[in-house]
Amino acid sequence: MTVKNETPRHSDFYISTVTFLVEGSLFRVPREPFQRESEVFCDMFSLPQGSSVVVEGTSDESPIRIDRISKNDFEQLLKVLLHRLAYGSQPDLPHGIEQWTSVLKLSTTWNFERLRQAAIDALIESGIGAVDRVVLSQRYYIKNWLLPALNDLARRPEPITLEEANQMGIDIALKLASVRERVTVTMPAPATSPISSPQVFVGGGFHYSYNNNNNNNNNNSHCVSVGSRRDPRMKDCDFSDQIRSTFSAYEL
Fold first, then answer.
1. 121: alpha, beta or left, given left = phi > 0 and alpha = psi -120 to 50?
2. Residue 53: how many CA atoms within 13 Å on its side-chain side?
3. Would you say residue 31 has pLDDT above 50?
4. What's the rounded Cα separation, in Å, for the pair 85 and 89?
């Protein structure tokens, strides 16, 4: 009886790799980060493999095929997932909103929780606009983005454009327009009153106030209806209550 002697593998410094096929390109990368960071890949790699079949991902001839994913999106995910392996050089992390959105897309799809949070943080730091925050909050389930983004759009003086409405979807665009247009600015109290700051009244009984540090009131009251031409003081208002009411079907 012949006993086969196998050389033991080092527990820390023997790297298992996995081969993926994405848009006609082969990627051979360390397997451990996928297994550690993603529930999806951890479950995939844990599936039992029959002894008579070729295990997918172990060679260029038998890669794991990933369909309906772009090569560029996969590259951006790998930059973040494997950046700690860039020994002796500055890691080539994604840059810009488009590349970090690729990371957000795949990290959400494959349950890379830490990479997803890194992408969210990077997008905020990049100065992503309110419309994009609305779109991505709905597409990738970022709950705490929607209300602040809608508030920013309700405050701004420029109207919602057709392109922006198409991006956000007609339901969100119409609801947002109703919040923006049902606003009246009034200054009902004289300067001697304890309540001398301008007040914002929104249709439906909601009430908002904002500070106007440059306001030197006299006893004159005035009222401005805000429609297609918005009062510049709207940028200091908080529309959160009205947005919550109008967008009651959404998670805010």
1. alpha
2. 7
3. yes
4. 9
